[in-house]
Amino acid sequence: MDLEKLQTQTEILIDDVIKQADLKKGQIFVLGLSSSEVNGGLIGHNSSAEIGQVIVKTIYDKLTAIGVRLAVQGCEHLNRALLVERDLADQKDLEIVSVVPQLNAGGSGQVAAYALFQDPVEVEYITAQAGLDIGDTAIGMHVKHVQIPFRPIMRELGGAHVTALKSRPKLIGGPRASYDVVDAFRQG
């Protein structure tokens, strides 16, 4: 796999997702990654540390530049736990669990993040404002309700199917409720 091309494509992809998700400083972004799928294989069968490093570092650098925190989801062998920085876990009072990700138990994304983060820890759950799923890793459980899937500029990264999620506040009320701030003031 051409890792320089992969980095360029990842930059294009994450720039588009950041824009469409309207990410703001202090928010959390979850990444699910199957390097096996990116490499044209089946999820969980051919993890690539190099692919994980390129994708995670590229996304981490873009998110860090705008003050968004990255959480990297692990595979099913770690119950989809997430690798985050300890200060984020402490700030959000997240349940820290004891495990160190490996290439075949956690995945290439978590292994790359573990090496990249200052003080990495695994947590069981998180509520992110948005996320990117590279290779159909099922990140929806970690994005806050209400989740809105959207199509990023690229539908594939390497051989992996790509989807993205953002969130919006829940709509509550009934027929009298207004969801547009401008309309609410006109009616009042």
UniProtKB/TrEMBL annotation:
One Pfam match: DUF436
InterPro entries per the UniProt record, alphabetical: Antibiotic_NAT-like, DUF436
Highest rank taxon of the organism: Bacteria
Family assignment from sequence similarity: Belongs to the UPF0340 family.
HAMAP family listed in its UniProt record: UPF0340
Protein name: UPF0340 protein GU334_08120
